[in-house]
Amino acid sequence: MFASGNPMLDRWLIERAWTNQVGRASRTYVVLHGGVVVGYYALASGGLDLAEAPSKFRRNMPDPIPVAVLGRLAVDQDFQGQGVGSCLLRNAVLRAQQAADIVGSHGILVHAIDESARAFYVHYGFVSSPAKPMTLVLAFAKSSP
User: Fold this and answer.
1) Active-site residue 124, yes or no?
2) Helical residues (DSSP H) of the chain, grouped into ranges
3) What distance in Å separates the CA atoms of residue 72 and residue 113, rounded to the nearest whole number?
4) What reactions does this protein catalyze (predicted)?
5) pLDDT, tens digit, for every residue of 64-83?
6) Measured between alpha carbons, how far is 106 from 140 in angstroms, rounded to an integer?
7) According to the model, what pLDDT value does residue 141 have?
8) Cis link prior to 66 (omega < 30° from 0)?
9) What residues contact residue 105 under an 8 Å CB cut-off, 6+ apart?
C-alpha cells in the first residue's frame, strides 16, 4: 500500500484521485514499479490572484492569472531519495506546459504542504508568493503564438 509518510497525501490518492479524475476536477499521473505505486502527482487548472503573485510573474497578466495547479505530489517512502520526486515534478511541468499551449496558462502553481516541500520547489526554480510564502509559482518559458 502507498505510504509517503504524509497520511493526508496517502488518503487523497486512495479516496479522491479517482473521483476527481472521473469528475474532471484534476488528472492524476501515477508511476508504477512491478505493480506497486512509487509516486503520483495531480494537475488541475486554476487562477492566482494578481495581488498574491510575485512581481515578475504578474507583469502584463490578467486578474486572476491563469495557471496550472500541481495539487499533489508524493513518493512512497521506499522510493524517496532516488530522484523520483524530481522526475515527477519535471513531468508535471512538461504536461502543464503542453496544456498551456492549447488552453493558455502562464505557469504552474503549488501550495507547499510544509517547509521541506517548499524548499524542494524553490530548488527547482519556483518562487514564493510575497503574500503567501507556501504558495509558489513557476512561469512557463515563452512560446511563439
Assistant:
1) no
2) 7-15, 17-22, 55-58, 84-103, 115-123
3) 9
4) glycyl-tRNA(Gly) + acetyl-CoA = N-acetylglycyl-tRNA(Gly) + CoA + H(+)
5) 999 999 999 999 999 999 99
6) 6
7) 85
8) no
9) 45, 66, 67, 68, 96, 99, 140
Q: How far is CA 72 from the centre of its chain?
A: 6
Whether residue 107 contacts residue 121, with contact meaning beta carbons closer than 8 Å, is answered with no
> Do the strands 36-48 and 107-111 form a parallel or antiparallel pair, or are they unpaired?
unpaired
CA distances from 111 to 68, 82, 137, 145 (A): 12, 23, 9, 29
| Domain boundaries along the sequence of the chain | 7-139
Superfamily of domain 7-139 in CATH is Gcn5-related N-acetyltransferase (GNAT) (3.40.630.30)
Q: How far apart are CA 26 and CA 22, in angstroms?
A: 9
* Active-site residue identified among 29, 40, 41, 121: 121
